[in-house]
Amino acid sequence: MIEIDVSDTQQVQWGSSIEMLARVSSCGVALLRMGHDGCFDVLCATRVSDSCLDRLCQNCTQQTFLNSKPSSSAIPLNPQKVIRPIAANDQYFEIDLSCSMPIYWPSQALFGYLCIILEKPQAAATLSKADLRLLLKQSADSMELDLSKLYRDYIKGIQRSGDKQQKVSLQQFIDAMKEHVWMKDADGRYIIVNQSVEIAWELSSEQILEHTDEELFPPQLAQQFIEGDKESITKGVQVTAGECKGLDIGNVESWLETTKVPVVSEAGELSGIIGISRNISTHKAAQDQLELASRVFENSVEGVLITDVDGIIIDAHGAYTEITGFEKSELIGQNPRVFSSGRHDKAFFESLWQSLLMTGRWHGEIWNRRKNGAVFPQLLTISAVYGDEHQIRYFVAVFADLSTQKKNEAELAQLAFHDPLTKLPNRMAVTSRLEQEIRLANRSEYQLGVIYIDVDLFKQVNESFGHVIGDEVLVELSQRLTLAIGSLATIARLGGDEFAVILPNIESNDMLLLRLSKLQQIFERPFMLGEHAPVRLTASMGVALYPQDGRDSSTLLVNADAAMHRAKQDGRNNYAFYTQSLTYESVAHLKLQSALHDALAQEAFYLVYQPKVDCQTKALSGFEALLRWNDPLLGSISPAIFIPVAEKIGLIQEIGRWVLQQACEQGVSWLAEGKDFGRIAVNVAGPQLQRRTFVNEVADVLKATGLPANRLELEVTESCMMSDPESVGRDLVLLADMGIMLSIDDFGTGYSSLNYLKKLPINKLKIDQGFVRDIPEDANNTAIAKAVIALGRSLNLKVIAEGVETPEQAKFFADNGCDEAQGYLFSRPKAASELEHFFKIPYCA
To answer: What pLDDT, in 10s, does the model give residues 284-308?
Structure first.
């Protein structure tokens, strides 16, 4: 590049020419000048957008690079752009919608390009392409004449300043070099520097010449330069003084390499020293990349082998020794066949080479052999390395040992299909095995049985002795199952205390019953619980048969599970066969669960109230609040059906709080109307009473509604009090202290423990309607009712009879000293609005 400044006047003239050229051609026109870095800048332009100018500069830089490369290497930098050379002038080129013509200095150094641009494809130029090319050439020739004059004026200026005559001076020579060139005399003073030195050091030649390093640079840097001079002078030859970071032209931080050589006179005396510093940043970056790649290879957990085109190993890197057992010296010159395991046939290697030669790459798993003869799995990637003429020169193989991975995969497969505790197949494995057995049974036309086993009350083992002991019992149970019928069936642990047994080839019902008997016998021997006393366990089993109870694994397991639950309902320690009615029950149960979740939100619940009366005076003594549910789809559902389901799915807490809230609000409403109702009784489910926050919830409801505590009665069952006597007892005391009356509901049907009657703050006993029925005809019920009344009197407790339906029953309880009664004789449970007559005196005939 010739660095001669173009005067402002000349630029204005060229700008006028470009404006004229744009008007004549109806196109955009730009003049680009090449900078010292080989890239192009816009000198002047008209009718061209900035984005288009940027692309134009890139295209011209690319074209210049292509023209500077040998013809054999002329590969476009950007394959998306199509460059179409013009035969008449191989420097003229068209890219996309632009035409560019080069402009040269008289020395044939490139000055830049004159370009015509049609930005929009749909726009049309006023001249033909041939006319545009001719106009572009004429304008470029005119500018080259201006450049010739400019160059001649520059040379004349140099001659007038007295620099040198016609021939090139030493100063001109070194100024033409990008390297930093300087010379010192024997005393270390600079006597020659080129322009690159002036630019990089940001000092003029006058500031540098006749000065030493100590005068120009910091002491440490100056001493470094002087030491380099001494080394060259001492050795008397060219030396590389060192590599260091420094500023190159344009204040760009670069890596510089300085070479120094001493200058000796004809008399053999030291005349000075010449130094040249060149920018080696690109070389340094490449060197760093090579060193980095080398370190990566050497520290890689993978092995790397390099072969020539004939397959001979010429180098090795990485973990090849750790993987194969071979040292590098043992591999150089060998063929990779030394690793052959013999497990792959000829077709495998033919496919490998075909992929490698066609695509330049092969990737996959292969079995190879170590030096010690051991065969191992390997993940291998082979890549072809091509030369300048796209000929394969090398093959690079990168490989990793898959032995550990394969072992882990096998262990994961074992874990995925087997229970980690008992080592039996798990649910996933039994499902797969069941599908296989179904296919075999279908072909052989034999029956296939699935037995679903659930250990009865196993939760109590975990809670009483801990999960470690519980796990030991499960392991022992799995061993017993395997020993008993393992060779005849597939045994699996489905989870928790649930197991499944697949019985193939069932030829008769007797055969199936014999197998079930064997399974029951497993539980006859007690299970040892470590240091604890042995315990006996039982199991509930459900049986489903193929094909009558299901034709796929999922259906058979579901139906066997349903049959198992029927066995539990029938008293446990038993087995039950699947019937279609179990499916109907299961579906109905599922619908009921789903509807229960929405019942509160849909306001499908409501309360009815049944009066309680004094047996002697027949006066109103209270009401019992009873929950009812009328579902939009399922209709009216009995509490005996939905309450146990609500307890099982955890909704009873929310429902129970709603009932308490509604009942208390009704009581407050009656009191506000001046109606004395005695107490309003609310039933409490076992899970509610066992909840730690129950007492606080009752207190919150009373506070929120404003109902006095002495107007509330809570009815609890015997069974829920016995589940956790200590905790429940504390809560009942707290409730009694608040002034709430506590009643035992359905007395006589549970534990009927006299101990808790003595210790707990119970106020009332309710005789279950099962004992009231058939009184006074049934002598047993009559005796039980009398005993309960006598017990209540002796413990100073009130007694109420529920389910009183006849005048004879009412007279019996009145005659025997019962305090209260309720039942259909007095009123069915009704809405609050239908009970107004009970507040009148007399309220009934």
So the answer is: 776 677 666 666 666 667 888 889 9
* Range in 51-65, 251-265, 416-430 with the lowest mean pLDDT: 251-265
Distance from C-alpha of 194 to C-alpha of 173, rounded to nearest angstrom: 9
CA-closest candidate to residue 537, choices 518, 555, 524:
524
Q: Which residue has the tokens 């796929």?
A: 552
Other C-beta atoms closer than 10 Å to the C-beta of 238 total 12
Q: At what angle do helices 725-737 and 694-705 cross, to 10 degrees?
A: 20
Tell which residue, 438, 430, 453, has the closest CA to residue 515. Answer: 453
User: What tens digit of pLDDT does each residue of 385-415 get?
Assistant: 888 777 888 999 999 899 888 888 887 877 7
If DSSP states are collapsed to H, E and C, what string results for 626-655? EEEEEECCCEEECHHHHHHHHHHCCCHHHH
Task: Say how far apart CA 2 and CA 148 lie, in whole Å.
Answer: 12
| For residue 587, pLDDT beyond 70 | no
Q: Rounded to 10 degrees, what is the CA torsion of 293, 296, 298, 304?
A: -80
Q: Of 571, 582, 716, 588, which Cα lies nearest the Cα of 641?
A: 588
More confident residue, 47 or 94: 47
Instruction: Enumerate residues 6+ apart whose C-beta is below 8 A from 274.
Output: 181, 182, 183, 260, 261, 263
CA distance 224 to 216: 13
Distance, CA of 239 to chain centre: 60
Strand partners, 543: 451, 577
Residue 200 tokens, joined? 């990089």
Q: How far apart are CA 187 and CA 192, in angstroms?
A: 14
pLDDT > 70: what percent of the chain?
85
Cβ atoms < 10 Å from Cβ of 774: 13
* CA torsion, ordered 89, 94, 99, 101, to nearest 10 deg: -30
pLDDT tens digits for 702-747? 999 999 999 999 998 877 766 667 788 888 899 999 999 999 887 7
Per residue in 251-290, pLDDT (tens digit) is 556 677 888 888 877 666 778 899 998 877 777 776 677 6
Do the Cβ atoms of 452 and 542 come closer than 8 Å?
yes
Q: What is the C-alpha radius of gyration for the chain, rounded to an integer number of angstroms?
A: 52
CA 660 – CA 699 distance, rounded (Å): 11
C-alpha 47/C-alpha 15 separation (Å) is: 12
- Record the pTM: 0.45
Contact 302, 319 (CB under 8 A): yes
Which pLDDT score is estimated for 748?
67
Name the residue type at position 19.
E
Three-state secondary structure string covering 515-572: HHHHHHHCCCCCEEECCEEEECCCEEEEEEEECCCCCCHHHHHHHHHHHHHHHHHCCC
Instruction: Report CA 149 to chain centroid distance, whole Å.
Output: 72
What is the C-alpha separation between 201 and 534, in angstroms, rounded? 96
Q: Is the backbone peptide bond immediately before 425 cis, with ω within 30 degrees of 0?
A: no
**For residue 273, what are the CA distances in angstroms to 182, 231, 234?**
9, 11, 12
Query: Predicted confidence band at 416 (pLDDT cuts at 50, 70, 90)?
Result: confident
Residues in the chain: 845
Token reading at 640: 């005996």
Residue matched to tokens 């649910």: 427
Q: How far apart are CA 157 and CA 551, in angstroms?
A: 106
Amino acid sitting at position 585? E
The 3-class SS string of 727-790 reads HHHHHHHHHHHCCCEEEEEEECCCCCCHHHHHHCCCCEEEECHHHHCCCCCCHHHHHHHHHHHH
* Alpha carbon distance 653, 620 (integer Å): 30
380: β partners: 364, 399
